[in-house]
Design brief:
Elements lengths: L9 E7 L5 H7 L9 E3 L8 E8 L13 E10 L1 E3 L8 E4 L7 H9 L3 E5 L8 E2 L2 E2 H6 L9 E10 L4 E7 L4 H11 L4 E11 L2 E2 L5 E4 H4 L5 E3 L2 H8 L27 E5 L2 E6 L5 E4 L2
Parallel strand pairs: 3-12, 15-16
Antiparallel strand pairs: 1-3, 1-14, 2-3, 4-11, 4-12, 5-6, 7-10, 8-9, 10-11, 12-13, 16-17, 17-18
Length: about 280
């Protein structure tokens, strides 16, 4: 996968294939924006595919904003066995009888997972245990426990007995959902496929797509700055936030509202991310 020309800082939308890590996928598109600094906005496991968001240049300061956006996935569940990492590449650690599964039982079990729930992340995850990533400790065979965290599953629907589409908030683990469904139904389960279809306003593209930062952060209200106000931003002084333009894209009314931020714009370019009280969260210029 490659990009034909170098462009400026902003957001790249990439369709990650099955196989490479998210970092390897980022590196594969790097010719399009090198030597700018970059990060991906939420990892996909090697077995998973779909939308990988790559933030470049000052756009990396918007990384934490993605956590609160809805993410939509298409997942395929294998019933009858649970693996240590939650997907088809893991070691089977428990088995069960899936012969008595019915659509009604699947629907009821899935319904019980909706909303805010305490969820234990997979041990093979990017969570930190002290200063080390959990997946590194798991690969090394170390024994440890990850605490349950409060996560949000907005909606989920079975498309068949094994395939479902779901929308969740950032931080949610679909591998944990499959594990927990298998345990609740007393038959064990793991994922065999996972495809991320969308994050917030962004859809998974057929080819790598570049969005200038001003065009990418459509869920943020905008405030045009005067030259004097831009000077205050550079000095990290608070501004009076009046006359901000409403966001062009919003989450659905029943989805948890992202924390309010404002995109400051000066001379047609992103200048800063602002808190609602007018303080500077991050400089984008």
């Amino acid at each position: 996968m490659g990009l034909s020309q170098r462009k400026g800082e902003g957001v790249w939308l990439v369709d990650k294939p099955v196989g490479p890590t998210s970092f390897e996928t980022l590196e594969s598109v790097k010719p399009g924006f090198a030597p700018l600094k970059a990060c991906h906005g939420g990892a996909l496991d090697p077995f998973a595919s779909g939308l990988l968001v790559v933030l470049t240049g000052h756009a990396v300061h918007a990384f934490h904003l993605l956590h609160e956006l809805p993410k939509t996935y298409l997942a395929t569940v294998h019933w009858g066995s649970e693996t240590d990492n939650g997907d088809l590449n893991g070691k089977v650690i428990a088995q069960g009888d899936a012969s008595k599964l019915t659509q009604a039982r699947l629907d009821e079990a899935l319904h019980q997972q909706l909303g805010w729930q305490l969820q234990v992340p997979p041990k093979f995850s990017n969570k930190r245990v002290g200063k080390e990533r959990a997946w590194r400790k798991a690969h090394a065979g170390e024994e440890f426990e990850l605490p349950a965290e409060r996560e949000y599953l907005h909606e989920a629907k079975w498309l068949s007995m094994t395939e479902l589409r779901l929308t969740c908030r950032g931080g949610y683990y679909v591998r944990s959902l499959a594990r927990d469904l298998g345990r609740a139904l007393d038959c064990r389960a793991h994922l065999t496929k996972l495809h991320r279809e969308a994050i917030g306003p962004w859809q998974c593209p057929a080819e790598p797509q570049y969005l200038p930062l001003l065009d990418a952060l459509t869920w943020l209200p905008r405030r045009e700055l005067t030259d004097d106000e831009m000077g205050k931003v550079r000095r990290k002084e608070k501004l009076e936030l009046k006359n901000a333009k409403p966001a062009a894209w919003r989450v659905s009314a029943d989805f948890p509202e992202p924390q309010k931020r404002v995109l400051a714009v000066h001379l047609g370019r992103p200048a800063a991310l602002l808190e609602l009280d007018g303080s500077v969260l991050a400089s984008l210029a």
